[in-house]
Amino acid sequence: MRRFEYLRAASIDQAIERLSFDPGAKLLAGGTNLVDLMKYDVACPTTIIDINDLPLGDIKETSDGGLRIGALVTNSDLAFHPVIENRYPLLASAILAGASAQLRNAATVAGNLLQRTRCSYFYDVMTPCNKRTPGSGCPARNGLNRNHAILGASQDCVATHPSDMCVALAAIGTMIVVQGPNGARSISLADFHRLPGDTPEQDTTLRNNEIILGIELPPAPEFQRYSYLKIRDRLSYAFALVSAAALLTIDDGVISTAHVALGGVAHKPWRDTAAEVVLVGRPASRGNFHQFASMLLSRSEALSQNGFKIELARRTVVRALEQAASRTPQSQSDKRVH
Amino acid sequence: MEVRANTALHVTLTINGVERKASIEPCVTLLDLLREKFDLTGTKKGCDHGQCGACTVLINGKRINSCLVLAVSRDGSEITTIEGIGTANELHPLQDAFVRHDALQCGYCTPGQICSAIGLISEGKAKTRDEIREAMSGNLCRCGAYIGIVDAIEEVIAAPRRKTVR
């Protein structure tokens, strides 16, 4: 690990001030991703600003019936919070599908939003990578790309976003509240993570001098049906090949709202609200779910090794929607897929 | 803001009930501090990247991978390592159950497995065998003693106050 200067921020303003004049500074919360990247020399911050003393650890109801979750709430505390378990079970399920209990005890909401791809070339500093070293090239495009993107990739980058939590947040529809030198602003989750284009070094639209304060969930829909279905090479403690977060409301067998987000397939959680509209007003049937999945994946493109993910994603979407519709969400401990 | 130079920083931790102080660089992980400075080598270094769970300790009662923790960031915390769990004459119920269920072969992962299982039990979420397996998936065992490990944890969850058999 490269040497760095360590600071402990006493206030949000102090953290922002330091970020503003120190381009080599990084914020440290749980550290589960950043410390790992520092050990590989993928992240080489000259300054670490430890934000663990900042008052960003609360979960509070908002005036509109939603929920405000502080940036420093750990993944475990969030997944096991009674309001999350009861009103946002999709989010609880997705969080528990990710990482391990130890990592979830340290990892935070903000860190999860900002976690970086697990592309093996990104992690290997002996190889080129446009995300790590802009302009150096992308060996994954014609190399080991079995785990890589099937949607929204570019010539410069075919990496995927690794989070499970963010896939559920995309389906729920979440605002990210951030603060910079000129005050606070909110960014919708859909606009927070970005597609790689020709600047894959930028994972998100968060500016270098901004800090995440927390996230805001909308009021939970009544009578929601949900499932988070994650498909991976081993049954636990692995990143998704494909995952699907499905959130449905159904009246008399007819779909009234449908929110579906995919993980493991793109540089960001993938959601297509135009395709979702097609499901509204139609029966919750397998045929309709198939049609929706085909629309959702209509622009998918295979690399040399990941063509199987297109059909896998189609089936995962259909199955997750069926699980949601029948009120039999995927268990994250009993791994049989019904 | 408290500015700390790129040199030694003071850190105070309560480790297994004893206050310990050290002067360390900020890049030192909790794992390396425990092993190299405090000679608490029961906590093992496996992958050093949060993938194997051998370095699991309890920080303020919660199981965490000590290899991914900068020690300075946990200044003031209470740490429990395997050295603080049971004694040779009075094993912790989990240690006793691990022995009886053959829950280890080489033993390298065992300190992490025990700390993780203590965390699992205090979380109070995992009850069934499937749930224990899932909640222990952050602890790898290359000898493949998983069946014994789950048997041992399942038994202790079912009878937490069971007397230690010697």
TrEMBL record, chain A:
UniProt keyword annotations, A-Z: FAD, Flavoprotein
UniProt keyword Flavoprotein, yes or no: yes
A Gene Ontology molecular function term of the record: FAD binding
* Listed InterPro entries: CO_DH_flav_C (IPR005107), CO_DH_flav_C_dom_sf (IPR036683), Diverse_Substr_Oxidored (IPR051312), FAD-bd_PCMH (IPR016166), FAD-bd_PCMH-like_sf (IPR036318), FAD-bd_PCMH_sub1 (IPR016167), FAD-bd_PCMH_sub2 (IPR016169), Mopterin_DH_FAD-bd (IPR002346)
Q: Which PROSITE patterns match?
A: FAD_PCMH
Pfam families attached to this UniProt entry: CO_deh_flav_C, FAD_binding_5
Q: Where is the FAD-binding PCMH-type domain?
A: 1-222
What protein am I looking at? FAD-binding molybdopterin dehydrogenase
Lineage, opening ranks: Bacteria, Pseudomonadati, Pseudomonadota, Alphaproteobacteria, Hyphomicrobiales
UniProtKB/TrEMBL annotation, chain B:
**Top-level taxon:** Bacteria
Q: What InterPro entries has UniProt attached to this entry? A: 2Fe-2S-bd, 2Fe-2S-bd_dom_sf, 2Fe-2S_ferredoxin-like_sf, 2Fe-2S_ferredoxin-type, 2Fe2S_fd_BS, Aldehyde_Oxdr_Iron-Sulfur, Beta-grasp_dom_sf
Q: Does the keyword Nucleotidyltransferase apply?
A: no
Residues in 2Fe-2S ferredoxin-type domain copies: 9-85
Q: Is-annotated flag, keyword Transmembrane?
A: no
One GO molecular function term? oxidoreductase activity, acting on the aldehyde or oxo group of donors
One Pfam family per UniProt: Fer2
> Could you tell me which PROSITE patterns the record lists for this protein?
2FE2S_FER_1, 2FE2S_FER_2
Keyword annotations from UniProtKB, A to Z: 2Fe-2S, Iron, Iron-sulfur, Metal-binding, Oxidoreductase
Q: What is this protein called?
A: (2Fe-2S)-binding protein
Q: Which organism is it from?
A: Phyllobacterium sophorae
